[in-house]
Amino acid sequence: MTKAPQSRDAFEARLRQIGAERYHDLHPFHDRLHGGQCTMEEVQAWVINRYYYQHSIPMKDAAFMSRVEDPDLRRAWRSRMEDHDGTADNEGGIRRWLRLAEAVGLDPDYVSTTEGVLPATKFAVDAYVRFVREKTLLEAVAASLTELFAPKIHANRIEGLLKNYAFADDSSLSYFRNRLKEAPKDVAFGLAWVLDHADTAEKQDVAARALIFKTDVLWSQLDALWGAYVEPRRIPPGAWQPGTGQLLRQAS
């Protein structure tokens, strides 16, 4: 017997429960960061490694759009690339992230090379880009729904960083403040699209697994960061070493 699909409301609740149980706001690194317990070296390592994710998002979106035949869907999705890459009127999330890098004492040119990124970070992020490139459109959109849970972590991050770190101000935290404004439109569109297109029980299962995959991508990045720079503090060959990639004025 074919399993009946969940109702729209029940399926949305199922997706939200995935975030409640698996989103990376539950990772101990975020408690450490937002609570002011990170050393500056740990903050710098986080900024360097998270940049690899930030700079890969527009490539993920470009890969998605290259497969979309519906111009309405391409048009709706295009703003995601503009939010990160920037436009004539919007500097974009990547530049804002590099401003954060400068604020924590890193050379933005060094960060943008991605040379010091942990191997596990690269594997996880590259797997996400490949997932979006190769899986169904439904899976690709469903994987993006971690945005449902992002506003809470951005708000907590702004509050925690402002309270606990001297580098935190409106300029250095502008990436997170802008995401509070940008993400809701992406969330509303992506969630509605998934709820509309996951119209069988099988498709709902596929979409839920895609969202779980994305939470795993985010979680694994923090696991790698924790193991390399917090404990047991084993930095793999080729990854960023504290004291390198700094602004010259910081090192002089």
How does this structure look, described?
Helix 7 runs antiparallel to helix 11 (201-229) and helix 8 (137-143) crosses helix 11 (201-229). This protein has a single domain, classed as Up-down Bundle (Heme Oxygenase, Chain A), CATH 1.20.910. It contains 12 helices and no strands. The chain is mainly alpha-helical. The chain has helices at residues 8-22, 28-34, 40-65, 71-85, 93-103, 108-113, 119-134, 137-143, 150-164, 174-197, 201-229, 248-251. The radius of gyration is 19 Å and the shape is globular.
Query: β content, as a range?
Result: under 5%
The first-level CATH class is given as Mainly Alpha
Biggest sheet descriptor: none
What's the helical proportion of residues? 55-70%
Topology overview:
Elements lengths: L7 H15 L5 H7 L5 H26 L5 H15 L7 H11 L4 H6 L5 H16 L2 H7 L6 H15 L9 H24 L3 H29 L18 H4 L1
Organism: Sagittula stellata (strain ATCC 700073 / DSM 11524 / E-37)
Catalytic activity: 6-(2-amino-2-carboxyethyl)-7,8-dioxo-1,2,3,4,7,8-hexahydroquinoline-2,4-dicarboxylate + 3 O2 = pyrroloquinoline quinone + 2 H2O2 + 2 H2O + H(+)
Function: Ring cyclization and eight-electron oxidation of 3a-(2-amino-2-carboxyethyl)-4,5-dioxo-4,5,6,7,8,9-hexahydroquinoline-7,9-dicarboxylic-acid to PQQ.
